[in-house]
Batch of 2 targets.
Target 1
Amino acid sequence: MNYGEVFTKGLWKDNPVLRMMLGMCPVLGVSTSAINGFGMGTATLFVLLGSNIAVALLKSYIPAQVRIPAYIIIIATFVTVVDMSMAAWFFDLYLTLGLFIPLIVVNCIILGRAEGFASKNTLSASTIDALGMGIGFTLAITTLGACRELLGNGSFFDVPVLGAWYPPALVMVLPPGAFIMLGFLAAGMRRIDFVLADRVRAQAAARRVQALKLATGGAPEPAAPGMK
Amino acid sequence: MVSINRLVIVLVLVAAVSALLLAQLDTITAPKIKQSRIDYKLRMVKNVLPSYDNDPNHDRQVIPVEVTGSAHVKVEVDEGKEGVLVYPAYKEGKLVGSAFAVTTHEGYSGDIDLLVGVDPNGAITGIEVINHAETPGLGAKIVSEHTWPGKKELVGRTLADSLEVKKDGGEIDAIAGATISPRAVCKAVKAGLETYAKQLKLEPPAPAATAQLGAQS
């Protein structure tokens, strides 16, 4: 298995938020500011890592008939661990994010990776997959939060960057803004993919033309003898 | 086909290990969480009271109060007693203010809990939001006087003054795009002042002085 590909697919090709459109509840609900998105992303990354490792270790002992309840218990355990630890050691962050932490249990990315990847792959592959998916999720939700915060509040990570000349577009920090921004980000990602694919095609075409020129110019009428 | 016993055993084991783990973690984190909550509340108590020389947390009193309606003083359980927790501030033996929590169900999303500081004449000495789920960037602006001037405008007011937002014909600034949250705060503060005037007025002298008197007799 190519670990590099397992890791990077979560960042771009199969990004959980902008490609697979999974876990929309926390994504749309929490991404009102960059710091909220980052906090939620990091918490999800931790839960994903824990549950993927646990599922990969236990996969051969858990009968297929009870795997879903078993996975849910494992996931709920890690979510509770995050919830308690955050309240104990990062109380100020807990004050803003506390409400959303229990929702990680029903984030389909987590169960999706447990069921779709960790239950069929080795421990190391599952760990890499959780890191890739978790970081991809964190990047996407932080970007979404940063864009909404910038347009809706004129600030970036709570630091005002747009001056008084900018009238904040309130809608961006309200629920509709989440859908609007998510659409633009997903479309932007597709656009980048198309541009890159076009470039690759253009290069390939250029190479073919070059090769043809070389073949015809270097050796004149190479097929002539055979034609006779 | 796996036997039903195996399914049950596996699920029970998974649940048991999970429960054990969480119980262990709980014993570690529970005291820390409790302390964080108390620290946070006391930090806020300090913010809403005028300067004092006692320990408001040590001198706190639990006063039983009947609550009705959607905005009222917050009833909590403290050391087995149920009622409103009142944190008194004394300076040189004289009561200079009391802090207590109020709660309202009229927030934009979920309840808003506030701490209100009141001086013996019934004038507000400060308010702080201690718990809310308002929209970040909108209703959530109520937490800071930089984003909601109304928080400062309420200070010094009594029941005789206007305690309504401008949109309701009052004098307190609202927040553009989010009137509901400041309105809820104003109503909760008003309800708190009303209860204070009727039932929460602490009788001076300070408990410390009372204790000394008691020791002498």
Note: Residues 4-48 of chain B form the longest helix (45 residues).
Target 2
Amino acid sequence: MTTIREKGYHHWDGQFKENFRPSWPIMRAGIKLAFQRKKFKPLFAASFIPAFAYAAGIYISERLEDFKSMGSGLEKFLQINPAFFKSYLTLDFTYFMILLLMSVGGAGLIADDFRHKAIQLYFARPLEKKDYLLGKAGVVAFFVGCLTLLPALILFILKLLFSGSFRLLVEYPWLILSIILFSALVMLFFTAFVLLCSSLTNNRNQAIALMFSLYFLSSILSGVLFLIFRSPYALLLSLKVNLDQVAAGFFLVKPSHDLPWYLSFLVLLAFAAFSYFLVRKKVRSVEVIK
Amino acid sequence: MTAVIEARNLSRWYGNVLGISEVTLDIEPGITALLGPNGAGKSTFMKIVTGQLKPNIGQVRIFGQKVWNNREIFWRLGFCPEVDSFYEGLNGLEFLTGLLGLYGFSAPEIQSRAWRALELVELKEVARRPIKSYSRGMRQRIKIAQALAHDPEVLVLDEPLSGLDPLSKRRIIKLIKELRNAGKTIVVSSHVLPEVEAMTSEIVLIHQGKILARGDLHFIRELLDQHPHMIRIKSPHYRELARQLATEDYILNITFEPENSAVTFETHQRDRFFDRLNQLVLESDCRIEEITSPDDNLQAVFDYLVGK
């Protein structure tokens, strides 16, 4: 074989940034892209309607005398206690808005990468699979956190400010922890759920259909099974019921169904673990071009 | 010269389908072309070299470091995939800056590297145009830009000339040669011999997952010259041409296609054949509509090499 040239390349003398996590730019890009999508901003703004309503509730609860004209029974209705925060964090409207927001800004997180064959570009960079998944998960967690954890904490602070005392904190010292832990669980669940749906197809519309159908069909199916078998355990199939049950457990309120809340907790954790396993497998499988 | 890429006994299967088998190869600085028909195993080899696929057997090292599960190596490695892999709604600049962000460069560094890469591939003027409006050649160049924007020492380009018009091909070949002159180690794959000829003389012939031959182009040519070349000429005077050329001792066989007004010659000595053909055209005023080489493709080369 002929020697055709001299060694002319130069050695790379840069420094590898050990502390840098490539998941951050992926997350930032995902959030930025979501806000660039049509209709995302108004939807995002509309998602905060319950937060404002609850904030107004807290304000009124501290000025009951001024709002007597609104009718009697307000006092009972506006008790600011763990049940109040549980009710905020399990609102059907909020969960529906999360699904709606994620249908615009989250369904394509992995599906679009599949469709545009971008996975191979990601993995030809100093990036591990966990960085990729963390980056994508961060996008969903950010938006879910914006609609759950952030407003719930603000509501808690508002209550302290409006009441001018730390009574809530003294009466329920564990409440802030419950808010954080339950919000974290909601974030974990929706992150796993959205990424699972997004990784099962390379078409974002199919991912959207999957998100809505899985979420609502789980409730319908569990309802039908409950009617047939009359067993509350059938309700463990419903994603929404499980979230409600766990919330009841976390906020120490009576659960809506005759089921131990920890079973629902285990179902949600198992769902998240299963989703992680599947998403990881799906992302790996596209690297193999046959 | 030290090998930059060292592949040892690489084998990879997809179920029962063989991707590559026992490939051992040292690649040195400069341009090395992987030449093989579609499905030969070129892309599999490249995916293993770029750490996207784990070989079932064997190992590949770049600068002495293993590739699989080694994040660090990707600072020194750039990969341009065969298929288009970009978000078409993004513009060229956004595409590059987004990918450069994954290296952890600062924002000004990202911008400067992106613009430098765009300049190198001559896409500065269209940097802010959506990729969906790019021509095939521009898309190919932006793909190359993403591979070299972080200034890697090793570039792996999978079919960089595929589907391009001659002008775009020339531009990319020029760019690849410039990168070679800048000291990079470049691995390109192709299934078209003339494309490879224009880039390098260092060729690795790969077929059915195995390396058939490795060497410079003359070596391949010599192999080829042991087999007759087929030259098909379409002309209204095809019988006259055949009559004149039939007397030449290097003509081995002549086949007529009256329905197409064409004749196919088989010869051992292509250069002498074309010299004589030029002479005939000038002397006898024969009009030629088309000259093609039915076996001047890589599949034919491989057929010869594997003795089909």
Note: Chain A has one domain: 23-62+78-285.
